[in-house]
Specification:
Layout (H helix, E strand, L loop, with lengths): L2 E2 L4 E2 L7 E4 L3 H11 L1 E7 L6 E6 L2 E6 L5 H14 L4 E10 L9 E9 L19 H14 L3 E8 L20 E3 L2 H11 L2 E11 L9 H6 L2 H10 L1
Parallel strand pairs: 3-6, 3-7, 7-11, 8-9, 9-10
Antiparallel strand pairs: 1-2, 4-5, 5-6, 7-10, 8-11
Length: 235
């Protein structure tokens, strides 16, 4: 019988142990149709498409998370707890704070700073520092080295807001933070709580240092294939 959560309806075995998770449902479909053998749609609740197929003979799933920490918090929680998923690899986009990172370069998020109260639900008596799974991180860096992809490993800043009245975002760069996304911190927190493994690999889609470097909406769907290939090799 299918398992029904509020946001996913599928058989437990429909999902692979490793799920690649872009934010955009169109990007999840692009990845499935471009890279996977025999992809099939396993979830389409609310239009958040999930596909499962094979890559080099290995079962792999890809499903969108939607935008923001509340959204990836929901989908990653349900995948970890209801469908036997062990690894979630976020493959998204980020704005760069780093002068050495340019359009299309990769950020492998070792940790995730945040302005969100997401982790407060765990009732910790201090500030929880969400971090990646080291095994996944190390392998991702090794794949980038072998492939000659430009990347940096370090902190990312997961923000609850895309548009902000604040002029202080670049202060994160003063502490070595490489860029900003909107999801990594919640994914890492859920993985820590639920015993899963998680990694966030982001392609630089725009730069706060070089404003002229800014990918269009259509380019963000399909052009950042380096991070997709790294995640698929990990899976």
């Amino acid at each position: 019988m299918p398992i029904s959560t509020p946001h996913i309806i599928a058989e437990k075995e429909d999902f692979a142990r490793t799920v690649l998770m872009p934010g955009d449902p169109r990007r999840s479909e692009f990845i499935a149709r471009t890279f996977l053998d025999d992809p099939r749609l396993v979830n389409d609740i609310r239009g958040v498409k999930g596909f499962t197929g094979s890559y080099k003979g290995k079962k792999v799933s890809v499903m969108a998370s939607g935008m923001g920490m509340p959204s990836i918090g929901i989908y990653s929680w349900e995948l970890f707890t209801a469908f036997g998923v062990e690894n979630i690899i976020r493959i998204g986009t980020a704005g760069s704070y780093d002068k050495e990172l340019h359009l299309g370069d990769l950020i492998i998020a070792q940790g995730a700073c945040t302005n969100s109260n997401y982790a407060s639900m765990f009732g910790m008596p201090g500030i929880f520092a969400p971090i990646a799974d080291f095994g996944l991180l190390r392998q991702a860096a090794e794949i980038c080295d072998r492939r000659g992809f430009r990347y940096k490993v370090g902190n990312i800043y997961s923000s609850d807001t895309f548009y902000s009245d604040s002029e202080t975002d670049l202060k994160w760069a003063e502490l070595g933070v490489l860029g900003v996304d909107m999801e990594a911190a919640a994914l890492y927190a859920n993985a820590a709580k639920l015993g899963g493994k998680a990694l966030c690999i982001c392609s630089v889609s725009n730069s706060f240092i070089y404003p002229e470097e800014d990918a269009s909406a259509s380019e963000r769907e399909t052009m950042f294939t380096n991070m997709m290939e790294v995640a698929l090799e990990l899976a």
